[in-house]
Design goal:
By secondary structure, the protein is mostly helical. It has helices spanning about 10-45, 50, 60-75, 75-90, 95-110, 115-120, 125-155, 160-170, 170-185, 190-195, 200, 205-215, 220-230, 235-245, 245-275, 280-310, 310-335, 340-360, 360-365, 375-405, 410-425. The chain has a single domain, classed as Up-down Bundle (Growth Hormone, Chain: A). It is globular, with a radius of gyration of 22 Å. Mean pLDDT is about 80; it is low at about 1-10 and about 435-445. This is Inner membrane metabolite transport protein YhjE.
Length: about 450
């Protein structure tokens, strides 16, 4: 029982509340900026890059080549997760977040300045791939740090809600990128392809400065500080994860694989499929994506709160059931070619199913690992599955579409199978017991 001197004062309580609220909002703002950069590339890959950087290919091959450069960012993510996870567990969470913010923002600006194929030939594609690789490393390290800064600052009973805030940053990032590309898509075709598409990339310098200003004000994670004070660091966090926590790593990979594949199939692939195959206007699909992201912005924190009440893995499992049930419906709604049903498809896919998966994910996945390897554990598992699922999602969906002679039934079956795997994986996960306070060192016996 605490004595009077140990009880927190009102000022200390307010300061603590301000600390975890600031950490949650800063994590959300930071991920908004980084996901804006990442989604901007995905949208441009679906609509523009095949014409700018791969004009000598036929339309289908050019789109595949553009998506291949898009996939490079995903395959770089595990490397970013390992590198930044190591230093995040050894040096601290905050410094890694500042570095990854720069590594994401600067390449985005440079992409907007790369000359076209007509001016420098294949060097344009080489530079594009290099910038995408740097973006992938940055995102691979950023996600784990943003989630942990929010979750580890949060008090018990609210970790799901605060863990959902960096997740919810995906929605405004998607909204901003869709609005930006939607605005330039209204330009005449020649203007959009010559200079218009570059504006959203170069303009991200403003968001980069805002993100830096916000994140530099956040204190270091209290879990990391306690771990550092009590000497619980490990020499090689990645080896510790692989040796002691292989089960936890595998169940996170299995769960994440369906979530990331669902998202990039229903957002990136669907954009190319709807505009290229179904003949739906770009602006209609971008507007629908915005509606879905707005719904997700509301639903993700609600899913985090619900996870605090009933358990995060049960909310996640609800989302996996949604994948199985909604995959065929999503493509049926697109095939209607009616604006209303296209909007319903996006809201259902992004604002409901994806929100149930992604909202509780930060707290759920973080609770699988102890503090001394938590950054490395969640980064490694999440980014490996992201490379497999997200990096291959548009290419895999395009291949399955070709195998089905233009019928997306195979794509729906593929998504459903991953949903089943994710449901089983989530069921096998721990609860939140790993968020228990770090034990103090044993007291030395009196001489």
């Amino acid at each position: 029982m605490m004595n009077a001197q140990e009880l927190p004062t009102g000022d200390e309580t307010r300061a603590a509340r301000k600390g975890y609220v600031t950490a949650g909002l800063a994590s959300m703002m930071g991920t908004t900026i980084e996901w804006y950069d990442f989604f901007l590339y995905g949208t441009a890959a679906a609509l523009i890059f095949n014409k700018i950087f791969f004009p000598s290919f036929d339309p289908i091959t050019g789109t595949m080549a553009a998506f291949a450069t898009y996939s490079v960012g995903f395959f770089a993510r595990p490397l970013g997760g390992i590198v930044f996870g190591h230093f995040g567990d050894k040096v601290g969470r905050k410094s890694m977040l500042l570095i990854t913010l720069l590594m994401m923002g600067v390449p985005t600006i440079l992409i907007g300045l790369i000359p076209s194929y007509e001016k420098i030939g294949y060097w344009a594609a080489v530079l594009l791939v290099l910038m995408r690789f740097l973006q992938g490393i940055a995102v691979g390290g950023e996600w784990g740090g943003a989630v942990l800064m929010a979750v580890e600052h949060a008090p018990a009973g609210k970790k799901g809600f605060f863990g959902s805030l960096p997740q919810a940053g995906v929605a405004p990032g998607l909204i901003l990128s869709s609005l930006a590309m939607g605005a330039v898509a209204k330009l005449p075709e020649a203007d959009m392809l010559s200079w218009g598409w570059r504006i959203p990339f170069v303009a991200s310098v403003i968001l980069l400065l805002v993100g830096w200003f916000i994140r530099v004000k956040v204190a270091e994670s209290p879990d990391f500080e306690r771990m550092e004070t009590r000497g619980r660091k490990v020499a090689l966090p990645v080896m510790e994860v692989l040796r002691k926590y292989p089960r936890e790593t595998l169940v996170v990979v299995g769960a994440r694989l369906a979530e990331v594949t669902w998202f990039y199939t229903t957002v990136t692939f669907a954009l190319a499929y709807a505009t290229g195959t179904l003949g739906i206007a770009r602006t209609v699909m971008l507007d629908a994506t915005i509606w879905g992201a707005v719904a997700a912005l509301v639903m993700m924190p609600l899913c985090g709160i619900l996870g605090d009440r009933i358990g995060h893995k049960w909310v996640f499992m609800l989302g996996t059931v949604g994948i199985v049930a909604c995959a065929p419906l999503f493509f049926d709604f697109l095939h209607s070619r009616e604006v209303f049903w296209i909007n319903v498809a996006a809201v259902m896919a992004i604002g409901v199913v994806y929100a149930c998966l992604y909202g509780p994910e930060g707290s759920l996945f973080a609770s699988q690992f102890p503090p001394e390897v938590r950054y490395t554990g969640i980064s490694l598992a999440v980014q490996v599955s992201g490379a497999i699922g997200g990096g291959l999602a548009p290419i895999m969906a395009t291949w399955l579409l070709a195998r089905g002679d233009g019928n997306p039934a195979y794509v729906a079956w593929y998504l459903g199978a991953l949903g089943v795997v994710a449901c089983i994986s989530a069921f096998k996960m721990h609860g939140s017991e790993r968020f228990a306070p770090i034990p103090k060192p044993l007291a030395k016996a009196a001489p």
